[in-house]
Write a structure and sequence with these properties.
The protein folds into four domains: 137 residues, Rossmann fold, CATH 3.40.50; 129 residues, Beta-Lactamase (2-Layer Sandwich); 160 residues, Reverse transcriptase/Diguanylate cyclase domain (Alpha-Beta Plaits, 2-Layer Sandwich), CATH 3.30.70.270; 89 residues, TIM Barrel. The chain is α/β, with parallel strands linked by helices. The relative contact order is 0.04. InterPro entries: Biofilm_reg_signaling, CheY-like_superfamily, EAL_dom, EAL_sf, GGDEF_dom, Nucleotide_cyclase, PAS, PAS-like_dom_sf. Pfam families: EAL, GGDEF, PAS_4, Response_reg.
Length: 726
């Protein structure tokens, strides 16, 4: 069934007639309004059946179809349109972007493909382009029709064709070629007359192209159609893709003409053909294929392509009795940098990390972006663990130098889990999962390292999942407890401060201490909720004691690196203090040296802001980290906490005593207070007093205790000594 346009109104003189088919009512209405606003006449069809009915009853210039619709899908609608309205063009609008779906749509006659969600300007531009193309095609058809009626227009029309038109002799030499070859490939017709057609073909397509044109089975009813690449003139222009259609010429049917040149061509002509430029379509197909199997930000293979290559590598390893390794890589501190500097800087960092990692790889290795800041690495055909160990060390060293992101110099590390085939798994999923498990064990041990998977890790992982579930329930059930360890004046034995320490009253395992669950809390991002709960309890309780007359009582709290590195750390902490009405000058936060040195610029700014509010800053475990005098001098630090490992050196007459001497002397010179941790004996206390150490804490005065015990201790002038350690 075909319909002719009204004689008084041509297609060029009226708005384009568009059909929009979509099974989502809201999206259908939105699309229709957008296209009407651009001046088109739109018929909206809700679903495939409605679209087919509209095609039966109305003439359209262009149809915009969703692929996945119930009852009748987009492919069936396209087939129906081609049967009754072959002149109607089709644009596919779909959320499906796999190469198979797109390629199938293009083969079925779709002129373009727009992926949901789409930008309105992009859609309108696509519609304009396709309508323009359809107009050219219709014009070309008219030209072909007129060619039969007017021999005088022959050469003009051929040369005006949007395709290259050519005629070959029996040997494949060019007898005629139209002017389109100049605009598409840069040659003039006179350059090519008498030359073999193969001169135009890309070297890789010469054999295939010339053989196809000489195939004896080619006839007027069975023309040869093939896609080839043609060479452009000059090295600056890339070769282009063409769809060539050719069929033989019967010399007896060549039209008689008075033009000697045309008579000569007719005597030699044996093949007539057209070459349509399909470069844009081929590039679109290549891009869609690349998009389906690569990460567009880093240009690395994505998860799907990585799994394909890993499956192939496993098959080859089994056949050749070889080993291979799968690495799971996770960037350390990426989230902090991304949150602080923004996603644009985070993307630049991922690209810079990718370049450094690629420099460490061997030929044949596959690095992929698995998602977010996670990467996977396939090392095929290795001899053993030592090969994987060398690569892992190279990767870690490659990321140690800082990255320059604009005006910011940032550091990012990497944690690597390794699973070796077949020892750590003999299937794709096992290898990836076990490498992931090994990577999380690295995270739990301090990051910035690598570990090979072992069977015991699976047991640890099962326990970890159980403990994670219980920890989430603990927050809901209020099972967390706060104990306080007194910080005592070394000379008067009076309590001057309390360090808040979290305990977990587990319903089955009893009282759990921080090393049992805090690493898991940081890994699972529960540390923020846990810390907020502990701070609330401590501020409430210690705040009461302050208001009851202990005006100078100091509350010391430990903060995790995740908390301190968060961009809104200062704002969040001060909001909490205001909520609990806790005096800022009675709070002392304890952080480690490593937290400061990880990002000295950002952490320095945060500490200065806190100091301006009156909050005191203490360096915990001093002497076990960077111990940089530079940051001690530059930052608003009030207290150094000497690590208990050095205090034990006093008892054993080890070098630790010399370290304590040096730390105390340095603190006096910098006018900082000193708190000695882990004091257990009278001898240690006497030694520290002689050095001029201001405060001590440890089992000499007792372990951390619940609030009720501390409340009674605060009522006494002096704290009792030699409390039995727990």
């Amino acid at each position: 069934m075909t319909r002719d346009l009204p004689t008084h109104l041509s297609r060029a003189d009226r708005p384009a007639q568009l059909l929009v088919a979509e099974d989502d009512q809201r999206l259908l209405a939105s699309l229709a309004d957008l296209l009407r606003g651009a001046g088109h006449t739109v018929t909206a069809a809700l679903g495939g059946p409605a679209a087919c009915e509209a095609l039966d009853n109305q003439d359209f210039d262009l149809a915009l179809l969703d692929l996945h619709m119930p009852e009748i899908d987009g492919y069936e609608v396209m087939a129906h349109a081609q049967d009754i309205q072959p002149h109607c063009g089709v644009i596919v609008i779909s959320g499906e972007s796999t190469f198979t779906s797109v390629s199938r749509a293009l083969r079925r006659g779709a002129l373009d493909y727009v992926k949901k969600p789409f930008a309105p300007d992009e859609l309108l531009e696509t519609v304009r382009n396709v309508l323009g193309q359809r107009s050219l095609i219709r014009d070309h058809a008219k030209v072909q029709h007129r060619l039969k009626k007017s021999e005088a227009l022959h050469r003009y029309l051929v040369n005006s064709s949007p395709d290259i038109v050519f005629v070959l002799d029996k040997a494949g030499r060019i007898c005629f070629i139209n002017n389109k070859v100049n605009s598409l490939l840069g040659y003039t017709p006179t350059d090519l007359i008498g030359e073999h057609f193969g001169r135009l073909l890309d070297e890789q397509d010469i054999t295939r192209g010339t053989y196809a044109l000489q195939d004896a089975s080619v006839s007027a009813d069975n023309p040869r159609t093939l896609e080839v690449r043609m060479k452009t003139r000059g090295s600056r222009r890339a070769n282009r893709h063409f769809e060539v259609t050719a069929f033989p010429i019967d010399p007896d049917t060549w039209p008689h003409t008075n033009d000697p040149e045309e008579r000569a061509i007719g005597q030699r002509a044996r093949i007539y053909g057209t070459a349509r430029d399909v470069t844009e379509r081929k590039e679109a197909e290549a891009f869609i294929n690349f998009q389906a199997y690569h990460d567009l930000l880093t240009r690395l293979p994505n998860r799907a392509l990585f799994k394909d290559r890993l499956n192939l590598a496993i098959t080859q390893a089994r056949r050749n009795s070889q080993k291979l390794a799968v690495m799971f890589l996770d960037l350390d501190r990426f989230k902090v940098i991304n949150d602080t500097l923004g996603h644009a800087m985070g993307d630049r960092l991922l690209q810079a990390v990718t370049r450094r990692l690629e420099e460490c790889l061997r030929r044949g290795d596959t690095l992929s972006r698995f998602g977010g800041d996670e990467f996977t690495l396939l090392l095929p055909a290795i001899h053993g663990k030592e090969d994987a160990r060398q690569i892992a060390n190279k990767l870690i060293r490659a990321l140690q130098p800082p990255f320059q992101l604009g005006d910011h110099e940032v550091f990012v590390g990497i944690s690597i889990g390794i699973a070796v085939f077949p020892d750590a798994g003999d299937s794709l999923d096992q290898l990836i999962q076990n490498a992931d498990i090994a990577m999380y064990h690295v995270k739990g041990k301090g990051k910035g390292d690598y570990r090979f998977y072992s069977d015991t890790m699976s047991i640890d992982t099962a326990n970890r999942l159980s403990l994670e579930r219980d920890l989430r329930l603990a927050l809901d059930r209020d099972e967390l407890r706060v104990h306080y360890q007194p910080q005592v004046c070394a000379n008067t034995n009076r309590i001057v401060g309390l360090e808040a320490l979290v305990r977990w009253q587990h319903p089955e395992r009893g009282l759990l201490y921080p090393p049992d669950f805090l690493p898991l809390a940081e890994e699972t991002k529960l540390i923020d909720d846990l810390s907020e709960r502990v701070l609330a309890k401590a501020c409430h309780q210690v705040g009461q004691w302050i208001h009851d007359g202990h005006d100078d009582l100091r509350l010391a709290v430990n903060l995790s690196p995740i908390q301190v590195e968060h961009p809104r750390f200062v704002h969040t902490l001060m909001e909490q203090l205001r909520t609990y009405q806790f005096p800022p000058h009675n709070l002392e936060i304890e952080i480690t040296e490593n937290v400061i040195m990880n990002d000295l610029e950002q952490i320095s700014q945060k500490l200065r802001e806190l100091a301006d509010y009156g909050v005191r800053i203490a360096i915990d475990d001093f002497g076990t980290g960077y111990s940089s005098l530079n940051y001690l001098h530059r930052l608003p630090i009030h207290t150094l906490k000497v690590d208990q490992s050095f205090i034990r050196g006093i008892r054993n007459s080890e070098d630790g005593a010399c370290i304590v001497n040096a730390i105390v002397a340095m603190a006096h010179g910098l006018k900082l207070e000193i708190v000695a941790e882990g004091v257990e004996t009278d001898a240690q206390l006497c030694y520290l007093r002689q050095l001029g150490c201001h405060q001590v804490q440890g089992f000499f005065y007792g372990p951390a205790q619940p609030a009720e015990f501390i409340r009674r201790s605060l009522g006494r002038d002096r704290l009792a000594q030699n409390v039995t350690a727990v």
